[in-house]
Amino acid sequence: MIREYYPRAWQHLHDAQQAKTAMAQLWSTLLKGGLVEESVVTHPDGSGLVEAWLVWPSGGQAELTELFRGCVRELWACLDALVTESVEAFSALQRLRRPECPRFFPVADSLEGFRASLAESCMDGTLSSHVAMVKDCQPFQDSDGDEIIDRIRRGLGYLLEWEAALDTGAVMGAWATPVEPQVHAAAPAVVESVEAAEPGPLDEQGRVLARYRLRSYQSGCAVNAQAGTWVDLCFTEGFVPADSEDTFDQRLSMVVEAVTRFAVSFAWLSSRVPGNRRVLPAEPAGASDAWIEAARSSKHWSAEELAAVASSDIGLGRVQDADTLTLMVSTPDGVYERVVPHATPLRHHDRRGTAAEAAVKDAAATWGLPDFVLAPSVERKGRGVREISDGLLVVGQRGVVLQIKAREGEPASVERETSWVLKQLTAAGKQIHGTVRRLQSQSVQMVNGRGHSIRIDSPAIDWVGVIIIEHPEPPQELALPAQEGNTPVIALLRRDWEFLFNQLRSTHAVVGYLHRVGTSAPVLGGEPERYYELAAADAEAVPGEEARSWMRRGGQLSSVPLLPAAPAGSDDDEAHTMVRIMLEDVATSPTGPAEKEAWQQVLASLDSLLVGYRTDLGRFLLDALSAVAKAEDGTTAWRMRTFLAGPDQDQLGFAVCSALTEHTRAAFSAWLRLRHHERGEHADLADLTSVGVLLTPRSDGYREWDTTVTAVSGDPALTEEELRTFQDLFNAPDTAGRSAGGTS
Description:
The protein is an alpha+beta fold. It contains 20 helices and 28 strands.
């Protein structure tokens, strides 16, 4: 289970265990190579000593120390990864406080120190149950009689001590434990007594292992001895064993056990959270790694190759290797390289089909919003039960019915795998058509990716079907047959499903894309190429005419492609992250059960903001928050901006104000009502909606700002006096933040 929920933590734990094993193997080799030398010294009075010392081969002690240092480092890295991967997993479900602060696993020697670490947001974004467990297991906590918890506490304490000692230059050594030393003497000498010495560190200076006394000893009598001593590898710095069972190896095993228990417990607690969570690739890559100028690529494309791509009919090249699909994309700014990685790893503790279903929904919750991801529900039919699809995506009035088909076992010949894929496509198509018929008959109650039960007015939704093929070695260049039926059906590899979401980072945009294409690409696995062909067509399209009323208010016409060539966030990841945080604020705002469906529609409206506008919005919000925070005392600062992607689309308004009061709330509502009213000069407001989001900075340190949301539909019924007042307030020449959006 650890590996499925915390792949990086699992890898660090595995590496720590490997380092521990390597230490034991090297120590055994050193002992066999003569690391320990012994001597027997007898004095004229018959008293004598059995001594031993270490003779380190060149580099041997340093190598052992580095292995131990690596083991300690990996154990800490495992603990830290439990925190950071939890933040990543659940950041799709909640907003982070102080995202700029590093997240790590806090271990302290006092309650004050632990609280100080938490105050720095080191675990903010993890589950409260994670935090409670970490607090209960701190080394400073008094024993409460639970042997397992006490062992975990001691283990963390050792880890803390070892790290501090290594930082001061401490090195690995040996610990000698005399058990049963023996002395033999030639006649006339007689062994009168042999006394074992106390255990202790063994080094190059030597250590007495036993003292003995001989009776009738004469010079020249042969005396020999067996040390009868265990010599164990040990980090001797601060090592004071409580008893003979308390060894360094036992302590190291206790530390590994403690870290393992944390990993298992974190994974179990995470598994109990309903809904979807963020996808955790084994080695996450940033957007900048997936989209770079081809001239800077590590693949060292030649000038001729780049020119050939730029001059081709569709401006697209394709290179498939063992690890990734690489597309060469011609843009007005030159040829870019777009890396399409393999699909993220599946959870190993589930059967492949179950793991694939979870991965598909998690990807949509990660790069889209979990609110629009609906888990399959089961309903009774006659004497049996049936499952409504493998999951749905619903955003606004558009939906996607999912069917995931996973190849179990090892792949066979190309012919057999081709037959398997075609058979699954046929079966999944039939299942999708049956599900759509059921959805069109009456509404359904389903649970979304945040664990909320939502009623879906499914007969009013426009549906497409998507078949996702999970296959370790999918057949290459497999032509996809057209699907029969009234509902459009598209077949994708899971890799391509993740590509679309990672490229657009908007559920509304991905669902819109699937409705736009309406059928499968020519070959299985060809979705990225088709996407870029459509993106190139969008880039060359002529912008549509904007509403005249908008332009008269000073709006600015800007045109962006519906399908951007660059992955969302690659131009300004901070700005895109700001938009996602804002959407998380809206999604997680407290609402009653009766408001859930209406809130879904508000969120869908906000997610409808075109990908190409999100950088502009995110940067506007960041700059505006910074600007209004500097407002002089006694003044109220505002920044406002509106977006409209078409005459029939929801209008989106965003405002930032220096203070949140009843007065500023009323002013924000008035601004949105005015902007909505103005659309009615050249359009029927009956079916139009405007949604507004207001951000106001906070200074209490709990969070950076408050988020207020309002929406207005239909005629706002402004009186003449209200209209004049609002126009005087918000339509003055210096009013900030009016803009318009166009689509191509």
